[in-house]
Amino acid sequence: MSDNNLDPRHLETLDRDLGRLNAAEKALGYVARPMVAPGLSLVFILAAGLLAALTMGVTTSGLVIAVAAVFGAYMALNIGANDVANNMAPAVGANALSMGGAILIAAIFESAGALIAGGDVVSTVAKGIVAPESAASPEIFIWAMMAALLSAALWVNLATWIGAPVSTTHSVVGGVMGAGIASAGFGAVNWGTMSAIAASWVISPALGGLVAAGFLWFIKSRIIYQDDKIAAARRWVPVLVGIMAGAFSTYLALKGIKKIVKIDFSTALLIGAVLGVLTWLVVRPIIRRQAVGLENRNKSLKTLFGIPLVVSAAFLSFAHGANDVANAVGPLAAIVHASKDGTVTGVVHIPIWVMMIGAFGISFGLFLFGPKLIRIVGSQITKLNPMRAFCVALSAAITVIVASWLGLPVSSTHIAVGAIFGVGLFREWYAERRIVSARKALPDTPAPARGERQRRKLVRRSHLLTIAAAWVITVPAAAVLSGLIYLVIHMIAG
To answer: Residue 179: what pLDDT?
Structure first.
């Protein structure tokens, strides 16, 4: 090595250059970080289009299906970013699951639900809202379905960006309705179905909130405000876990295994009752062991609800994947059917590659964009702990079962968010009632000032207004957007 290489001036220059490179790398990393998720999303969307093109062949119909697959992949990503948050948010908000653990569980069970049991509601999304025979030709039907898919994806993307959890089912319904009206007139729409969906805007959150509040009242009165909380928990937590197991078993029997065997409502209830009792018998000794040595205070109760809450989140994800994958691949399956068979009638069969786009797209969307909505729903509406979050999860399953029995259309998004509001509003009412009772016992106690009463509000009203507004305008907004997109596609293709 020469003496020049040891010159301090050269070392100083080298340090400056390395410092500049290091600063440039940090700046590049800072700039590029926000682009990682959109970049990976774009790769997945293009891969979905390429998969469709290779599967269907490089023909005119194959290229149309490839474009539809791109739209379907985009929709699946948005479902993962927005809808799945409602299943995971209670467990994350209650600190029973970390964000990473929630995303991992949701990705596994959402994909499993979509691939194992996700085909039974696709035909409803594809054909139940607008009569396919109302389309003048298969080409017009295909354009309408593509417009519906793209408009729903754009609307859900916008809702996620502003932080509003909306129903992806209602987004697709609005998209199909708008494209149907634009292509075939108002007579093509099944207005009876649309009226039932509009009714679900009120029914879903109200039922979810009432059921969740009812379970929280039970937990407070039978466990939390008992003198011996741990003894009460040993008695009632296994019962609650058994009810949860029975509810999810009934739900999955009704919704999850239709492709394997048809089960009527009475049989599903019997299956749920049997598995609920078996779960109660299994859980009793487990809870008894967990309760040994716990202090007689509320914080100790959280330990007993942690595992049931994680299990309920997994079940919710499986059920969500089984049902809501249709929102991404229902119109896509209809497009594939119309392109291949040249007809818009008959049974829509779902190719496995179509289901894979829906399943993996939901998981990727959750991983890349889901944390924002998980934080909003899980911690910014009202404060959750494992007991309250357990009530939300249990409410979601029971409300869907009750709605199925009554024949009412409900949204899993609306149920979960309504249950969270129900829990928070019930806590406000319960706290106020206890204050009134205490003042009756001690009449000299001064009434709290108005400002103090406002600070005791446990639900953020601003989120309530934002979410309610987003729910109400989802169907008409998606419909108008879809109609405009259809007219643009029609002008380009026609």
So the answer is: 87
pLDDT tens string 228-262: 999 999 999 999 999 988 988 887 777 666 556 67
CA distances from 19 to 10, 12, 16, 27, 489 (A): 14, 10, 5, 12, 53
Distance, in Å, from the CA atom of 201 to the CA atom of 164, rounded to the nearest integer, reads: 15
Rounded to whole angstroms, the Cα distance separating 403 from 456 reads 34
Q: Write out pLDDT tens, residues 194-220.
A: 787 778 778 888 888 999 999 999 999
What mean pLDDT do residues 128-138 have?
65
In a domain, 297, yes or no: yes
Q: What is the C-alpha to C-alpha distance for residues 494 and 227, in angstroms, rounded to an integer?
A: 75
8 A C-beta contact, residue 429 and residue 257: no
Give the total number of structural domains in the chain. 1
**Does residue 270 sit within a domain?**
yes
- Whole-model pTM? 0.80
CA distances from 466 to 207, 407, 463, 471, 472 (A): 20, 29, 5, 9, 10
Residue in the structure block whose two tokens are 């607008």: 130
Structure tokens at 217: 């009242």
Q: Based on the number of CB atoms within 10 Å of its own CB, is 143 exposed (0-12), middle (13-18) or buried (19 or more)? A: buried
